[in-house]
Design a protein that fits this description.
mainly alpha; two-stranded antiparallel sheet; transmembrane; transmembrane helix; membrane; ABC transporter permease; UPF0014_fam
Length: about 270
């Protein structure tokens, strides 16, 4: 079952006709979204073309060094995105470092487990398998970590008096912060839970769709998609747990005091 259809660049250009139609509607309805739509589409096109060229070169080289370098660049950009999306951030290197570190540990652990245990390419770091898998894991973990940290920091800043009241009553820092922590963890877990709940009923994920379009048996595509979703769920959970608990450890001290002076940004 191999009916892969090679697309021409004209096919890709033709697919953009409905996006152009949206821009025309934006002009007609004076929505002010035309520039954003066009710039976003052009940015995406340039990014994907460049990524395609870079990945092709890395795949041809089959070099461990280039594979690790590409993975490191992905972690740096994802860490920066987590840092940029938070209204209130940890000061110093903790700001960009905590989210990136949590993602790096969770993403590397889960990706290596899948490569060595289930997919088993030879060598195990073969970039054709390692980089796309690591990218998917990283992207989903990034969303969860970002939401978890943002909810945690905002909750601590807004609920400062309640937390400090609990600490004055003799509660430990982990007990006093538990309600805020629960909200942060729920926020971080929500995207992947929603994705798993909708997969197969509301949506067919991009990877599964791509495999089916390239001629893979749908039942085989389902197996791969299940593998990916389990990995994404596991990595997101580990990343969110690591980042939120690490942030609480940073925003309190061994004397069970709240240290919001180690937080910057926000309006209150």
């Amino acid at each position: 079952m191999n009916t892969y259809h090679v697309l021409s660049y004209w096919d890709v250009v033709a697919a953009s006709v409905f996006l152009i139609l949206n821009a025309v509607f934006s002009i007609a309805l004076d929505l002010g979204l035309t520039r954003t739509l066009i710039v976003s589409a052009l940015r995406m096109t340039v990014q994907l073309i460049l990524v395609g060229l870079i990945l092709k070169a890395i795949f041809l080289s089959a070099s461990l060094v280039w594979t690790l370098l590409a993975a490191a660049v992905m972690v740096v950009f994802a860490g920066r995105e987590i840092w940029a999306r938070q209204e209130r951030r940890l000061t110093g290197l903790w700001g960009p470092g905590l989210g990136a570190g949590a993602m790096l540990i969770a993403g590397t652990l889960v990706t290596f487990y899948a490569l060595a245990g289930q997919i088993r390419p030879d060598p195990v770091w073969l970039p054709q398998y390692a980089l796309p898998l690591f990218g998917m894991v990283l992207g989903n973990t990034m969303t969860g970590v970002s939401l978890g940290l943002d909810t945690l920091h905002s909750g601590l800043a807004q609920g400062k008096r309640e937390v400090e009241a609990q600490l004055l009553l003799g509660r430990t820092r982990w007990v006093a912060i538990r309600p805020v922590l629960r909200r942060a963890l729920r926020s971080g877990f929500t995207p992947i839970i929603n994705a798993m709940a909708a997969t197969g009923v509301v949506s067919l994920p991009g990877m599964m769709t791509g495999q089916i379009l390239s001629g893979i048996d749908p039942q085989e595509a389902v197996k791969y998609q299940l593998l990916i979703m389990f990995l994404l769920g596991g990595a997101t959970g580990l990343g969110v747990l690591g980042a939120t608990f690490g942030s609480i450890w940073r925003l309190t001290d061994t004397r069970h005091r709240l240290r919001l002076d180690r937080l910057t940004g926000g309006t209150s």
